[in-house]
Amino acid sequence: MSTMIEVRNLSKQYDPKHPPAVDNISYDVQAGELFSLLGPNGAGKSTTIGMLCGLLRPTSGDAKIGPYSIRTATLAAKRLIGIVPQEIALYPTLSARQNLHFWGQMYDMQGKALSNRVEEVLDQIGLRERANDRIDTYSGGMKRRVNIGAGLLHRPQVLFMDEPTVGIDPQSRRAILDMTKQLNAEGMTVLYTTHYMEEAQELSHRIGIQDHGKLIALGTLAELTRLVGETDTLKLQVSELADNTETARLDLQLGALPGVRNVTRQADTLTLLIDNANTRLAEVINCCSAVGVHITAIEVHEPNLEQVFLHLTGRALRD
Amino acid sequence: MKKAWIIARKDLMIRFRDGWGVLFLILTPLALTTIMGLAFGGITDNQAELHIPVAIVNRDRGLQSADLENGTAFKLPAALLATGRFTATTEATQTGFPAAGLNFGQVMIEQVFASAGLQTLLQTTVVTDESAARRAVAAGTTYCCVITFPPTLTQALVMGQPLVIPLYSDPARATSAQIVESVLKQVVGQLGGGSALFQISLAQLASSGRLDQIQSSDQLTALFTQIGNQLGVTNTSTTTLGANNSGETGAFTGNSLLQLVTRDVTGTEVAFNILAFFVPAMALIFLGFGASQGVRSILVEEEMGTFARLNAGPLSSGAILLGKLIGVFVICALQFGVLLLAGRFLFQVQWGDPLAVALLAIVTVLAFTGLGLLIATVARDQSQANTLATTINLIFSLVGGSLIPMDRFPAWLQRIAQLTPNYWGMAGFTKLAIGQGLPALTTEISALTIISVFLFGVGLLLYRRRVLR
Ligand SMILES: Nc1ncnc2c1ncn2[C@@H]1O[C@H](COP(=O)(O)OP(=O)(O)OP(=O)(O)O)[C@@H](O)[C@H]1O
Ligand SMILES: [Mg+2]
Questions:
Q1: Residue B182 CB partners (closer than 8 Å, separation 6+)
Q2: Strand pairing partners for A275?
Q3: In the listed set B258, B293, B327, which residue is the last one of a domain according to the structure?
Q4: Largest Cα–Cα distance in chain A?
Q5: Domains along chain A?
Q6: What pLDDT sits at residue A227?
Q7: Are residues B135 and B226 in the same domain?
């Protein structure tokens, strides 16, 4: 496999008075890979994409798209890229068809080839019937789909998708995720940013976790979850306890069970960090019955990116 | 630069879809022009009520000028000699010379400049101290111009000699000075050039058969006096005769020579049309709004994210800007053109030479596009650009003379005004409206070009800094 995106010590500082928005990050994305950048608001995801597609001048470092440096061969690099900006970047008073036509022309397409391709993309985003309506009459999800379509027209080798599912209904979201997978399956390299860990988990071959401008972890889902070990999270909802001594006794007994690493309590919810929760459920339930505590609900969470992020930063991904 | 054209075309499409926006930029100035025209003298009689203050110094010595004193003979006009009733001896007799009291300077003051048509335009004061009047002009007070009738005025007119009438004006009050100059040119054009006044009068007399009745020098004197009367010349030697022949003078009224003043050679009305002020004034104000609104679409695109998308595409930032500016230029040129045409066909403003109009319009639109670019690149965002554009356009319109004629301003302000494209646009279109052509527009066109180059230069520098952060 060849390297499609090569990021080397890339940094961007908008304002010397503030810490850099992107702080010395390096990674490679292989051709055909679907790579996600996961991070909370303000992590520097859009800034990274801005630099990679030649909109922002890096403060230091460099990146290559294919063989082309974004610093020295910007135009050639831009030709390989398609972008789906975070905000809807379309002309609201023009129709979807007119918008797609225009953006195609900006990527050197013309004539019959362009017209055919516009119809093809309209089919792909499922908006052929509404294609002659003005964009400002569309729903949020429809606009997002046209926004993606405009980035696909010229069949780019690399597609940058910057939080393409923000603020839309589950149905449109599903459609966009499926389309992303489809495009990748057809061989397109995709750099996908999101702050939804579910999306990163579902889509990506590999995930980079970005926070405060720094790349704090990088790997496959399995590699990343291994960072928090095999520890699962077990959430128990319990009936009211008789008195404090009983409560303390329960905490003590649960904490003494094999594999349990930590017990915390918040009102009627007990949270246990426990290795291989599924094999130890019976012991936990028995322990509760022994002290006369009635369990109303049980949830088991296998390690996920949320916990990885918590583990790495001490903060929740979404605050 | 094919992509620049595509961007421009896209912008045109977007602008024309915004029907209200287009209406605002074209119908509003038309409506305002109509209202202004009605308020200042009406659309129908089209007379300007400008009252430009002008000082006139009359140094005309009639036929008693230096040349005559030096013994140069006054020759009778050709039409009289052609009757064959006068000989060379008539020329030499200076003492019994006919119409010795004739003073065209006086005639012009009393008849031409006092005529109803010109009085609404000019407010003339006859002064004797020429240098004091000139000082007043230079200081920007009392008078806008000083017209000096030279000592040889009458002689030159009667004998068809070249004539120079000095017009001393304040360059800072260019518009008014141009109006005065144009009036003066018309007057001189009629009175001068082959002593048109006499030639025409005599020709009229000849055609009515009255020249044939003239047999003697006395009768000739009576005739000249009659013509003088017709011109309103009043002096002791002519009043009595004029009074005696009052019945006969009536014969001339249908062809009053004074009408020549307000008609040009082709016979069309050349009185200044007040709408020739308001049409360019309103067109320029709304050109300012149109251009800044057009260039502001860069900021709109910046906020919509389409600007970033354009910049992420395989085209240079220069091509993007060029496309945007072509779009703005085309829209503004259309808008301005429609307003000029409306001025021509709705308000009867004569722009004259189409080439001159086109050239002036192009540099004017360029200058305003440059102004729009500068505003857009200076502004932080769209709403700031909006405020900035409104403020600058209003100030420029005011200072540049689009709202109030420049002459009401002190001289220093009028000089500052020369930094605005509004000033030069007004000056240029006023010149066109009073019948001047391309050669007279050199200053205006050059000034607008220089302003454009400056605005685009600074605008481009700021744009470059803005695009690549
Ligand atoms: N044009 C700019 N000028 C100054 N600071 C900026 C600019 N754009 C972004 N920043 C700052 O850079 C940091 C990273 O912003 P960025 O938009 O890259 O984050 P993000 O990861 O895309 O966040 P989100 O999930 O909210 O889109 C933030 O602190 C932001 O305030
Ligand atoms: Mg972002």
A1: B270, B272, B434, B435, B436
A2: A231
A3: B258
A4: 81
A5: 3-225 (3.40.50.300), 230-302 (3.30.70.100)
A6: 83
A7: yes
* Distance of alpha carbon A1 from alpha carbon A32, whole angstroms: 8
Domain count, chain B: 2
Q: What is the pLDDT of residue B264?
A: 31
Instruction: Classify residue A28 as exposed, middle or buried by CB count within 10 Å of its CB (0-12, 13-18, 19+).
Output: middle
Q: Taking CA atoms, what residue in A is nearest to B4?
A: A106
| Domain shared by B161 and B292, yes or no | no
Residues B413/B419, Cβ–Cβ less than 8 Å: no
> CB–CB of B312 and A53 under 8 A?
yes
Ligand 1 atom at minimal distance to the Cα of residue A48:
18
> Which residues span the domain enclosing B227?
52-258
**Please, which residues have CB within 8 angstroms of residue A129's CB and are 6 or more apart in sequence?**
none
Query: Which atom of ligand 1 approaches the CA of B469 most closely?
Result: 1
In a domain, B266, yes or no: no
Query: Rounded CA gap, B227 and B290, in Å?
Result: 56
Read off the pLDDT of each residue in B192-199 and give the average, rounded to a whole number: 47
At B387-410, the pLDDT tens digits run 999 999 999 998 888 877 776 677
Residues B70 and B189 in one domain: yes
Count CB atoms within 10 A of the CB of residue B153. 28
Q: Which residue type, as a one-letter code, is found at position A120? A: E
Cα of B307 vs its chain's centroid, Å: 44
- Cα–Cα distance measured from residue B245 to residue B239, given in angstroms and rounded to the nearest whole number: 10
Choose between A271 and B64: higher pLDDT.
A271
Question: Which residues of chain A are within 8 Å of residue B306 when distances are taken between CB atoms?
Answer: 89-91
Nearest Cα neighbor of A173 from A224, A139, A207, A206 is A139
| B57 and B194 together in one domain | yes
Give the single-character DSSP code of A226: G
Q: Which residue has the tokens 């420049």?
A: B406
Which residues on B lie below 8 Å from A136 (Cβ)? none
* Domain assignment of residue B72, yes or no: yes
In a domain, B437, yes or no: yes
- Are the beta carbons of A54 and A68 closer than 8 angstroms? no
Please indicate, yes or no, whether residues B332 and B427 belong to a single structural domain of this protein.
yes
Q: Do residue B101 and residue B152 come from a single domain?
A: yes
Contacts of B319 in chain A (CB under 8 A): none
Give the long-range contacts of residues B187-190, CB within 8 A, separation 24 or more. Answer: B187/B108, B187/B112, B187/B261, B188/B163, B189/B264, B189/B265, B190/B260, B190/B261
Q: Which of B445, B465, B434, B423 is nearest to B172 (CA)?
A: B423
> Do B17 and B63 share a domain, yes or no?
no
Q: A132: CA distance to ligand 1 center in Å? A: 35
Beta bridge partners of B335: none
* CA distance linking residue B90 with residue A144, whole number of Å: 101
In angstroms, the CA B16 to CA B8 distance is 12
User: Chains A and B: how many Cβ contacts under 8 Å?
Assistant: 64
Query: If residue A187 lies in a helix (H) or strand (E), which one and from where to where?
Result: none
Collapsing DSSP to helix, strand or coil, B425 comes out as helix
Pocket of ligand 1 (CB under 6 A): A 14-15, 21, 39, 41-47, 86, 163, 195
Q: Is the pTM here over 0.90, yes or no?
A: no
Using CA positions, which residue lies closest to atom 3 of ligand 1?
A14
Distance A195 CA to ligand 1 centre (A): 14
Residue B263 lies in a domain: no
Question: By the 8 A CB rule, do A143 and A88 touch?
Answer: yes
Within this chain, do residues B316 and B294 fall inside the same structural domain, yes or no? yes
Domain finish residue from B258, B279, B304: B258
- The CA distance from A2 to the nearest CA of chain B, in Å, is 23
pLDDT at residue B253 in the model: 22
> In whole numbers, what is the pLDDT of chain B averaged over residues?
73
Number of C-beta neighbours around residue B28 at 10 A:
14
